[in-house]
């Protein structure tokens, strides 16, 4: 299951930070989807819309984009591990269980179906270990099999049903590590193919890791996507940019005056303060009364490409408490952010 869905995630991160020598960032499902697409886009080039699919252990990401720009992002709460535990917990494989898993996956996808069909795509690319394992099984006896089709997926499903149990899934191309969770992954992939009427899918080894590496390279080159995210959010909410920048400049000056004395060494937190100041009136379109609360709500619940969950929480809290007394009980998640 994704760490981001854990109820005690911030408690875990606080404890982990005491023993782990590196900072831990937890990304949202939307951010994971964006990074997956960037990983594919920077290594595989298409001139038309493409649908990218990544089936993980606890979530499945679906992205439509063109060149380096995504158009639609979605992360659904269904994965090979979670679905195998839900529908094949005792290791028994049969038609009824497969159908239940596929129906559940289709229901999970219904909410995005209309927008994705309306946007459309001309090619489909699959990533992740689950899809790689499925392709390995399909091509084990056919080296010329370079892509995945619905027909071959249904043939593979028949092989799974014939095995009757997960322990008996001794199929060439399937590793022991993947064997225990592959049933849920196959059910999800068949559901996606059938619901979106996909005829064939190519595979890419490039995914989240490559997208993250590219993002880090961009930051080192001072091309932080978060700057564009803040600018776009400001633009969409018609913020008084001149006033917002005056407030940001003041916050920046105050930070520098106390930075040494208060031992404020985090450059990232310094930048978050400046961005919070730039967005402090982002909720003005809702109501001028209780502006700080409305602005914090907008920031907390918006899609902010480039920001981790912790960064988005801190950004929202700085805006929430820039006026009046700080009431930490109103933001319990802030108390456990490491």
Poorly predicted segments: none
The averaged pLDDT comes out at: 91
Task: Give, in spatial order, the strands making up the sheet with the most strands.
Answer: 3-2-1-4-6-5
Globular, elongated, flat, extended or rod-shaped: what is the shape?
elongated
Indicate the CATH class of the largest domain.
Alpha Beta
Count of beta strands: 6
CATH superfamily of the largest domain: Exopolyphosphatase. Domain 2
Distinct helical segment count:
15
Kindly identify the CATH topology of the largest domain. Nucleotidyltransferase, domain 5
Beta-strand fraction estimate = 5-15%
Strand count, sense and closure of the main sheet? Answer: 6 strands, mixed
Cα separation of the termini? 22 Å
Could you say what the CATH architecture of the largest domain is? 2-Layer Sandwich
Which value, in Å, is the CA radius of gyration?
23 Å
Any idea how many domains? 2
Structure overview:
The protein is an alpha/beta fold and 338 residues long. It has 2 domains: 3-212, Exopolyphosphatase. Domain 2 (Nucleotidyltransferase, domain 5, 2-Layer Sandwich); 225-335, Orthogonal Bundle (Hypothetical protein af1432). It has helices at 9-19, 29-41, 80-87, 95-119, 129-139, 150-163, 176-179, 182-195, 208-220, 225-236, 241-258, 267-278, 291-301, 309-320, 332-335; strands at 50-55, 60-66, 69-76, 123-127, 148-149, 200-203. Strands 3-2-1-4-6-5 form a 6-stranded mixed beta sheet, sandwiched between helices. It starts with 8 loop residues before the first helix and ends with a helix. The mean pLDDT is 91. Residues 225-333 form the Ppx/GppA phosphatase C-terminal domain.
